[in-house]
Design goal:
CATH class of the largest domain: Alpha Beta
Largest sheet: 5 strands, parallel
Radius of gyration: 25 Å
Structural class: alpha/beta
Number of helices: 12
Number of strands: 10
CATH architecture of the largest domain: 3-Layer(aba) Sandwich
Low-confidence stretches: none
Number of domains: 3
Bound molecules: S-adenosylmethionine
Distance between the termini: 68 Å
Shape: globular
Helix content: 40-55%
Order of helices and strands: EHEHEHEHEHEHEHEEHEHHHH
CATH topology of the largest domain: Cobalt-precorrin-4 Transmethylase, domain 1
Length: 285
């Protein structure tokens, strides 16, 4: 890739704690661009001062995303280069950036991402839980209905789940998870990359005992074990236990499935051979 700065937007990852986690490329771009747009200029100025970066700063956050986004894209059209930084980690991950990327695509404005630190992936790898497939939920919503949907989704999720959480809500969230998910394995990662970095691993119950008795400090990432294949099969069996096989077949046929496909689905749901389910359709005729 060409090393010269271009009229475009550079989304730059910044450290999530340890300042040494900034990349050489991000440092160079922050020095070379015409403007740095930061989620919180008071926060980012400390980072820039530390690295002796004098580039003009402007704000770009949740509340001025629309107007400021347009202004920044206009600057690029005039030939200027812009760097976008959030308070920590990757812009666009539970931080502003995604909306501007969507608009850059729509309006054919050049942009790229300079990768780097991210709390979710750091916690996931440190957790020791499966990294084969995972689902990132960001923060659980504080709106009741949305939160309920998120918890329902997590409950059924077989991939490892990653959540962001603030220290004063972590115990409440653990209680809610225990109530809905049972006693799954979790990892609580806090102060990642910082002096007091800690990764606590164990069951949700044990995590509650541990964190109820101390004032949780620092920012948290919660990593939650997904449902095992046996639990998924068991949940399916329980779901259909109140249906007879003919009712179960009807359920799918009413949804528009052919008899053949309904048989297949019922066989999978109940872990039965297809011919076993097929018998019930013959008895029907
Ligand atoms: N954009 C960031 C990223 O790429 O990770 C996330 C920003 S989000 C607004 C902030 C949340 O990320 C915190 O509430 C916490 O859950 C998590 N986080 C950020 N830094 C962290 C750290 N050093 N240790 C643990 N969690 C952290």
């Amino acid at each position: 890739m060409d090393n010269k700065k271009k009229p475009m937007i550079y989304f730059c990852a910044t450290p999530i704690g340890n300042l040494e986690d900034i990349s050489l490329r991000v440092l160079r771009i922050l020095k070379e661009v015409d403007v740095i747009a930061a989620e919180d200029t008071r926060h980012s100025i400390k980072l820039l001062n530390h690295f002796n970066i004098k580039t003009p700063l402007t704000s770009y956050h949740q509340h001025n995303e629309l107007t400021k986004g347009k202004y920044l894209m206009d600057l690029v059209r005039e030939g200027k280069s812009i760097a976008i930084v959030s308070d920590a980690g990757m812009p666009g991950i539970s931080d502003p950036g995604q909306e501007l990327i969507r608009r850059c695509i729509e309006e054919e404005i050049s942009f790229t991402l300079l990768p780097g630190a991210n709390a979710a992936l750091t916690a996931l790898v440190l957790s020791g839980l499966s990294t084969e497939a995972f689902a990132f939920e960001g923060f659980l919503s504080r709106e009741k209905a949305i939160r309920k949907n998120q918890i329902d989704r997590i409950k059924k999720e077989s991939r490892t789940i990653i959540l962001y959480e603030s220290p004063n809500r972590v115990v409440g969230t653990l209680k809610e998870l225990e109530e809905h998910l049972g006693n799954r394995q979790v990892a609580l990662a806090r102060e990642l990359t910082k002096h007091y970095e800690e990764v606590w691993r164990g069951s949700i119950k044990k995590a509650l005992e541990e964190f109820q008795n101390r004032q949780p400090k620092g920012e948290f990432v919660l990593v939650i074990e997904g449902l095992s294949q046996e639990e998924i099969a068991e949940a399916k069996r329980r779901r259909w236990a109140s249906f007879t096989i003919p009712e179960h077949l009807n359920y799918y046929m009413e949804q528009g499935y052919s008899k053949k496909d309904a048989i297949k689905k019922v066989a999978v749901d109940r872990n039965l051979p297809k011919r076993e389910v097929y018998k019930y359709t013959i008895e029907d005729n």
